[in-house]
Amino acid sequence: MVFEDLPPVRRLAERARAILADVFATDDPCTAEDRLSAPAFRRLALRARKVIGEDETIERHWHDTLSTIGYLPADTWLDRIRLRAVPSRDDIDHQRLQVLPPHRDTWGSGIAAQVNWWLPLYPLSDTRTMLLWPAAFRHPVANDSADWSFDAFRRGGSADYPLLPVARESPPAPALPVSIAPGQLLAFSAAHLHGGVRDGSGTTRFGIDSRTVWDPDRRAGRGAPNVDCAAGTEMWRWYSPPQGASAGERR
After folding, report:
1. What SS3 class is residue 83?
2. Residue 165 needs a FRET pair 20 to 30 A away by CA distance; which of 39, 102, 131, 192 works?
């Protein structure tokens, strides 16, 4: 589902773009990778992630966005806000700046009622965007969710430990490139198989994403069908509970 013309989304995007322009010292952060060394770009992109993730104005606009849509604070589990920066260059290698391979977020979170949100900050192209595989929604895809552990990832015992569980086989059908404009907001089930793509254009893709769970869905046991997820734990600790939730409801 795509939401259009939401004033708090527009304000959020404007604020995020202003932060990127300040951090990269340019009005065109998307082409900053052309003039920066790989270490310099990594440093600035990770700084921008931190600033946007901690910015109270961004957070307020995001909460206003959810309330406008109908996700009220008393009913909504909230994950944090993230900047996604995906450079086109192969030498800018960092786990947090990589193109994400095909995956379902539910493979990591184990939460069938989770909804993902994605907002591009600058224009996209079919070779530089998010990809969805709608045909895989009810089609099992071999994956490593049974072996992946968030605690093992956080311990950082190996630099090669994967950021997230991923598919072990090719998706069952061609991918659908997500073509939405800056200022539009995409909502999709965390059980959808999705990933990313980049090209050699010299242009970085910047976007904002987050995740929510609507508490009435949690209480009713509603969620997307589980066709292949073997996650052993529901990761409620990733979320802030709804406002006013009792201690027993904080998982």
Report:
1. strand
2. 39
What is the number of other CB atoms lying within 10 angstroms of the CB of residue 22?
12
Question: What torsion do the CA atoms of 135, 137, 138, 143 make, to the nearest 10 degrees?
Answer: 100
Which residue's entry shows tokens 């998982």?
251
The pLDDT tens digits of the residues spanning 92-135 come to: 989 899 999 999 999 999 999 999 999 999 999 999 999 999 99
Read off the pTM.
0.95
What are 196-227's pLDDT values in tens digits? 999 989 999 999 999 999 999 999 999 999 99
Pairing of strands 114-120, 205-214: antiparallel
User: What tokens does 187 get?
Assistant: 């909502």
Which fold would CATH assign to domain 2-244? Jelly Rolls (2.60.120)
What is the sign, positive or negative, of the torsion defined by CA atoms of 128, 213, 83, 91? negative
Q: Distance between CA 8 and CA 57 in Å, rounded?
A: 11
**Tokens of residue 171, six digits:** 């998706």
